[in-house]
């Protein structure tokens, strides 16, 4: 009986504490929640408006304007964008550019990161700063000399889409992505490799392992979490690129999907409903990658933040 009587007493004693805790809502936290809610709504407005526009017909918007209630909603624009713009062909172009660019970027960045993080040379810090500083250059600054250089570099036909030049070739676009993304990846991977104990490679060295074997069979397998996060980020960044695909390809047939959306815009007439539908179709693979690998995406935002 004593134990039965103690339980309600304990519940009664804890109830005021719980009520008191619920009442402790600080004004700063309320302001923060209001700010985040408003920011999220503002961020969602363009996306919701694009979905709404893509579901309306061109006749409806031309008669009532875009800021009006739709008389009917249809998926006709999605069908037209998929068939008229040839989106499957441009999706394949994006895959041809994105997959090799991601793999080469990770391989080259891991090699440089291994050099600057596992060996003590005087040029280590200079190399790391050089790669990181190169990543800070805006692409628009170097486009003129880069464009002229691409027109002067010859390539065999099997590597240049038949153009014989670096310009207007998948190889040229892949290389510029590798060059621009290697700086960030080298910085992140070098910081990650510094967290791996040196005793592992020293033990392998005593057992007779070469430098290449230490890199390939010891360091790279331990960097799988970093590779997964970087691969997710790189895939989204390179797939979403619009600038290089538009500038470094002469013809629209070889452009990636993001640059090919501009072909839906006519010279004298543009159907904004059709363009909105095409843009949303283009974003589907990015959303799918993010939803499937969101854990790696979030962890990638803090990679390299522990040790500099």
Question: Would you kindly provide a written description of the structure presented here, covering whatever features stand out?
Answer:
The longest helix has 32 residues, at 87-118. α5 packs parallel to α8 (170-194) and α5 (87-118) runs antiparallel to α11 (224-239). The protein has helices at 2-23, 27-54, 58-64, 76-84, 87-118, 124-134, 139-152, 170-194, 198-206, 211-222, 224-239, 243-247, 257-260, 272-292, 294-300. It has 2 domains: 29-73, no CATH class; 87-303, MetI-like fold (Orthogonal Bundle). With 308 residues, the protein is mainly alpha-helical. It is found in: Cell membrane.
Uncertain spans: 1-7
Distance between the termini: 63 Å
Whole-number count of domains: 2
Question: Briefly, what CATH class of the largest domain?
Answer: Mainly Alpha
Mean pLDDT: 82
CATH topology group of the largest domain: MetI-like fold
The CATH superfamily of the largest domain bears the name MetI-like
The helix count comes to 15
- The sequence of SSEs as H and E is HHHHHHHHHHHHHHH
Radius of gyration: 27 Å
The CATH architecture of the largest domain is: Orthogonal Bundle
Query: In one word, what is the shape?
Result: globular
What structural class do you assign from the helix and strand content?
Answer: mainly alpha
Biggest β-sheet, characterized? none
Helix content: over 70%
Binned strand content: under 5%
| Total beta strand runs | 0
Membrane topology: Multi-pass membrane protein
Organism: Kutzneria kofuensis
Keywords: Cell membrane, Membrane, Sugar transport, Transmembrane, Transmembrane helix, Transport
Subcellular location: Cell membrane
